[in-house]
Amino acid sequence: MAEIYAAIDVGSYEISMKVFELSSRKGVRELDHVRHRVDLGSESYATGRLGSAHINEICRILTEFGQVMKSWGVEKVRACATSAIRESSNAAVVLEQIEKRTGIRVELLSNSEQRFLDYKAIALKSDAFGQMIETNSAIVDIGGGSVQISLFDRQKLVTTQNLKLGVLRLKENVNVLGVGTGRYNELISEIVGAQLSVFTRMYLKDREIVNVIIADDYISPILQKSAALEEAGIISHEQAQQMAKMPGYASADTFIRFLNSVPTESSTINARILGIPYENMPLVYISGLIVKCIADVMQAQAVWAPGVTLCDGIVYEYAQKKRVLARQHDFEQDIIASAYNISARYKGNRKRSELIGELALGIFDSTKRIHGLAKRERLLLQIAAILHDCGKYVSMMNIGESAYAIIMATEIIGLSHREREIVACTVRYAYAPIPGYDDVRSSMPVTDEASRLIILKLTAILRVAGGLDRSHMKKFRKSTFALKDQELRITVDTAEDVTLEKGLFGNRAAFFEQIFGVVPVIRRKGTK
Fold first, then answer.
1. Which domain holds residue 450?
2. What is the pLDDT along the chain (528 residues), one digit of tens a residue?
């Protein structure tokens, strides 16, 4: 039976809603798309908060959306807010007012969650995505407040970085200078170039990018309209035919030609032909300049705008959970790949991280009936194992504290702020000298009890896993785990001496027992 679902994006420049029909037979089908322009970003980025006028406007629009949802018979809705509200000092007040006055609960997305949803929308909606990332490609996700650049090499996520180069933020920066649109190219290219030079030096190096994949609300809708671009005289008939075969795809030369046409005297006519408000043209141009600067630095051959929005990402994530869509891309592996790249940046030992991960996940899987954690917590444990020694890059004396600071300062795409804090705390307490339940719990920066309990459980498991490779000699690579009576029996198949591991295992085993009521015991295979 079909389900009617609505996704709402409370963005920096507009509030939009898409209504979808979900069914196992037809998959995901868009029924309606409504948009209201409301410039939240300009006030939020300039003053650091949202005033009552904008709060009232948000509530009015969402109330109207509520009527549209009622007419469609929407059964479930998810509304998400991004950087304009996220960066407002009064975000909590804004969200509470919205819910009380409209009945719609708006979820505040962290930057990494927002970008991951955009990324999912590209990967799930577009069959060409897998083919695109076979070669070196970059996803350039342009928002009102920032730009996320994610690099792929042979279908693997190499790195993802957030730069404060959003369209509205750049527009405000240039407006402060009191210059006209005629100098946008010069000034914005200078601002963007400064940050890109650092990004290039640190992450791009000698890697050549073939394709730039665009996710935005400005350029993408236009590049989907090859016939309108031809009518406006921006591209030739041959180019329009080529773009029609793969909507949104254009060579670098075609894209430059398109961009050069935006700020001309005929832009009013072009705005009408392209179906966008004339007042949006400066934002289209700024977004295009960002893409041009990035494509130039990367020496990209083509750009591709699949035309997806955050609303698409929201519904596709829901459809995956409901098993309406088949799994086409392993997003979990992208999160793990991102963690390994962070570890490599801080000179982490990959082989040891893999071993600690194997041991930790072995303990996790064998103790399911006593820890009650889910698949998502298993992923967080694996990420903690990958990043467990990154603090050594800063200090060999304060590994846990240094690792905590690194993880909290580094975005991990696909993880919420809360999940990142769980990972950071797990690594931090894995290195605490002799932690007890009360010591760890009282010193946690997180306040909700559910997160505290997850941290305690993951810490106990990671401490035991780390203790099994205390000598860094990988003696416990061939280990089995079994929960029997009140013991977690760790059986190792090795001829090497494990005296060190057994002798220094006491504190780790004691903490594990405090959390789970089970004692970890090391045994050599073939002995009682």
1. 331-476
2. 789 999 999 998 889 999 999 988 888 899 999 999 898 988 888 899 999 999 999 999 999 999 999 999 999 999 999 989 998 999 999 999 999 999 999 999 988 888 888 888 887 766 677 777 778 888 899 988 889 998 887 777 778 888 888 888 888 888 877 777 678 888 888 988 888 888 888 888 777 888 899 988 888 888 887 777 777 677 778 777 777 777 888 888 888 877 777 654 445 656 666 667 777 778 888 888 899 888 888 888 888 888 888 999 999 889 888 888 776 677 888 889 889 989 988 998 888 899 899 999 999 999 998 999 999 999 999 999 999 999 999 988 889 899 999 999 988 888 888 899 999 999 999 888 766 767 777 777 776 888 889 999 999 999 988 887 766 666 667 778 888 888 888 887 776 666 666 666 777 888 899 999 988 888 776 665
List the one residue out of 434, 345, 354, 357 whose CA is nearest residue 394.
345
Tokens describing residue 509: 């085993």
Side-chain-facing half-sphere of 173: CA atoms under 13 Å: 18
Q: What is the pTM of this model?
A: 0.80
The enclosing domain of 232 has a CATH number of 3.30.420.150
CB 356 within 8 A of CB 308: no
In a domain, 122, yes or no: no
Shared domain for 63 and 196, answered yes or no, is: no
d(CA 28, CA 322) in angstroms, rounded, equals: 11
Do 361 and 454 fall within a single domain?
A: yes
Tell me: do 169 and 104 sit in the same domain.
no
Same domain, 146 and 251: yes
Q: Report the candidate in 30, 100, 18 with the shortest Cα–Cα distance to residue 63.
A: 100
Task: Name residues whose C-beta falls within 8 Å of residue 73's C-beta, 6 or more positions apart in sequence.
Answer: 4
Q: Would residue 498 count as lying in a domain?
A: no
Residues 272 and 405 grouped into a single domain: no
Q: What's the structural domain count of the chain?
A: 3
Does 485 fall in a domain?
Answer: no
